[in-house]
């Protein structure tokens, strides 16, 4: 259990980005130096206890970059961005996926992952799991090994974890209903 | 002077995103754990020597988030994202600006900065300075004090620094020609 009640730092904005959705706004947590430090310590602490060491932390734009970059630094790993189509300048592979709201795709540089690299996929939010599943496919296509997935927030009622069966999933804050 | 030659880790991709542009690709640096750590140490080291302490690190999506988040963690500051219009869920203010390639705008949450907050604006790239100038206006409108701007890369031939006169600017890697 985390010492801090991270939920206290997360603002809920009703009806964003569309009617009926309770948006979990993490900017109120990010701007709090102590809360941000504690998230970093919790993330890193969890992985530093593992028997493996991590080569790459992989994160999707844009909010995923925030925790992914910090985690990479803390674990002394490299950082690999997944980006919307057309943003990465060198040779890429692409995966399409469905999100809670839309259809989308991510690309990864072909040379971002070496065969056998131990990877964490790091994102702010686990919703339906579509984004994460695409991230897993991209990493595995390049020969990387997905050791774990980290999420700041897990929306348990969307059952995203079902899509990630067989993978270690660590989330700091869970919401069991909308 | 940095011990590491960071330029060695930056890949140049000609004609991206359009003909005639030499794109400086930082993904090759990010994926290298040692280079990423050294960037983090250089950034933090520069600011830890200053006589002030930083309350907020402010960064524009998406690549800016990577270094901004790490710097916020290293300085024990809060992190404030600037986002494209419509992405932030609570009350925002907006600034428009011209980039090297286009016209665009950023928003910031009104409650992201407290009056008197000492801020660093952190981005991957200083090009024409349009983005940074908009970031400065947003922070200052909310009563924050811009103590410094950090860039991983400065494209000196675009004279972005001219737009930032009167502000402390720290960039790790400089290109004096396209």
Can you walk through the features of this model?
Two copies of one chain form a homodimer. Chain A is an alpha/beta fold and 178 residues long. Chain A has a domain at 52-175: 3-Layer(aba) Sandwich (Rossmann fold), CATH 3.40.50.2020. In chain A, 28% of the residues lie in helices and 33% in strands. Chain A has five helices and nine strands, in the order ββααβαββββαβαβ. The first copy, chain A, has helices at 27-30, 33-48, 63-75, 130-141, 160-163; strands at 11-14, 22-25, 56-60, 78-82, 92-98, 103-109, 118-126, 145-155, 169-175. A five-stranded parallel sheet of chain A has the order 4-3-7-8-9, with helices on both faces. In chain A, α2 packs across α3 (63-75). The mean pLDDT of chain A is 95. Chain A binds chain B through residues 11, 13, 16-17, 23, 25, 27-28, 30-33, 36-37, 40, 55-56, 61-63, 65-70, 72-74, 76-81, 83, 86-90, 109, 111-112, and chain B through 11, 13, 16-17, 23, 25, 27-28, 30-33, 36-37, 40, 55-56, 61-63, 65-70, 72-74, 76-81, 83, 86-90, 109, 111-112.
TL;DR of this structure?
The structure is a homodimer of 178-residue chains. Chain A is built from 5 helices and 9 strands; from the N terminus they run E-E-H-H-E-H-E-E-E-E-H-E-H-E.
Q: What topology emerges from the helices and strands here?
A:
2 copies of one chain form a homodimer.
Chain A: E1 11-14, E2 22-25, H1 27-30, H2 33-48, E3 56-60, H3 63-75, E4 78-82, E5 92-98, E6 103-109, E7 118-126, H4 130-141, E8 145-155, H5 160-163, E9 169-175
Parallel strand pairs in A: 3-4, 3-7, 7-8, 8-9
Antiparallel strand pairs in A: 1-2, 5-6
């Amino acid at each position: 259990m985390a010492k801090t009640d991270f939920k206290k730092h997360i603002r809920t904005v009703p009806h964003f980005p569309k009617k009926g959705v309770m948006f979990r706004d993490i900017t109120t947590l990010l701007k709090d130096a102590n809360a941000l430090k504690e998230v970093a310590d919790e993330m890193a602490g969890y992985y530093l206890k593992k028997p493996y060491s991590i080569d790459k932390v992989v994160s999707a734009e844009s909010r995923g970059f925030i925790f992914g970059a910090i985690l990479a630094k803390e674990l002394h790993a490299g950082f690999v961005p997944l980006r919307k189509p057309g943003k990465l300048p060198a040779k890429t592979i692409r995966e399409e996926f469905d999100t809670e709201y839309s259809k989308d795709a991510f690309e990864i540089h072909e040379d971002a992952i070496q065969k056998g690299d131990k990877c964490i996929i790091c994102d702010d939010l686990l919703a339906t799991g579509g984004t994460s599943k695409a991230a897993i496919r991209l990493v595995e296509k390049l020969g990387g090994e997905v050791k774990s997935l980290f999420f700041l927030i897990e929306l348990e009622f969307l059952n995203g974890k079902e899509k990630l069966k067989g993978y270690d999933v660590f989330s700091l804050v869970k919401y069991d209903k909308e």
